[in-house]
């Protein structure tokens, strides 16, 4: 038989004991008994978290992904709501609140890099969209604003500013005599190549506190949530 770990979970005066059987090949050291108090409703979650911490190889996960004990301002807000309205499940506030606060921090951090190249976020998006479309780096105004999910008026203003700076130009669309194409100039191509290099380096720095496994897991979860709006 494999090694045995006995975990005692206490709630008020009642005590439940769980015995977990594990194959010893998954363990790096002798298993000790661990005692801790949890709320009855959180038994399953607490057990799973403990198992992740004790036996990461069994679950093939990085233990750094287990919830941190550090508190952030959102935790304080949730604690206040738990106290004032214990009848409400305010857990979504934690997720959405953190995403909202992070969005604000990210806009500032990313905006600083764009400013070094004399660009605003919207202008960078136009240049980057043209650049990633591939040579000859040209798209119709409609293709641009649909790709970037902005109004045609907003797109026109961005194009006007970039054209005034000599970064893009309007050229006739040979496929449609009444239409025009927006194309990167040589100056715009050189600028966006420099800017996107700095942007990617900045993004790596912003996410440096996360492990590769954490970044992949977070990306998967955000994709799932995004698809619930955009699918």
Oligomer: single chain
Low-confidence runs of at least 5 consecutive residues: 1-52, 54-66
What is the helical fraction, as a range of percent? 40-55%
Q: Kindly report how far apart the N and C termini lie.
A: 49 Å
Net shape: elongated
> Main beta sheet: strand number and arrangement?
3 strands, mixed
Report on this model:
The chain has 231 residues and is α+β, with helices and mostly antiparallel strands. It is built from nine helices and six strands. α4 crosses α8, α5 (121-132) crosses α8 and α6 crosses α7 (152-164). The protein is elongated. 55% of the residues lie in helices and 17% in strands.
Q: What's the short story on this structure?
A:
By secondary structure, the protein is an alpha+beta fold. The chain has helices at residues 43-54, 56-59, 73-84, 91-115, 121-132, 141-148, 152-164, 186-206, 212-230; strands spanning 3-11, 14-22, 34-37, 138-139, 168-173, 176-184. Strands 2-1-3 form a three-stranded mixed β-sheet, with no helix packed on it. A three-stranded antiparallel β-sheet has the order 4-6-5.
Name some characteristics of this structure.
9 helices, 231 residues, three-stranded mixed β-sheet, alpha+beta
């Amino acid at each position: 038989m494999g090694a045995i770990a006995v975990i005692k979970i206490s709630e008020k005066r009642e005590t439940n004991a769980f015995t977990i059987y594990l194959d010893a090949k998954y363990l790096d050291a002798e298993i000790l008994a661990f005692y801790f108090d949890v709320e009855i409703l959180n038994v399953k979650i607490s057990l799973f978290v403990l198992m992740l911490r004790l036996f990461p190889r069994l679950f093939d996960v990085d233990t750094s992904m287990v919830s941190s004990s550090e508190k952030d301002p959102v935790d304080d807000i949730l604690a206040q709501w738990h106290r004032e309205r214990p009848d409400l499940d305010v857990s979504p506030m934690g997720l959405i609140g953190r995403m909202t606060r992070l969005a604000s921090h990210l806009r500032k951090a990313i905006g600083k890099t764009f400013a070094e190249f004399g660009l605003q976020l919207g202008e960078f998006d136009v240049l980057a969209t043209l650049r990633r479309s591939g040579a000859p780096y040209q798209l119709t105004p409609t293709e641009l604003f649909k790709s970037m999910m902005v109004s045609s008026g907003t797109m026109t203003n961005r194009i006007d500013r970039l054209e005034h700076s000599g970064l893009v130009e309007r050229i006739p669309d040979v496929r449609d005599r009444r239409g025009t194409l927006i194309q990167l100039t040589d100056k715009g191509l050189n600028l966006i190549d420099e800017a996107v290099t700095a942007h990617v380096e900045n993004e790596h720095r912003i996410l440096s506190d996360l492990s590769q496994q954490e970044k992949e897991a977070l990306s998967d979860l955000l994709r799932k949530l995004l698809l619930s709006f955009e699918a």
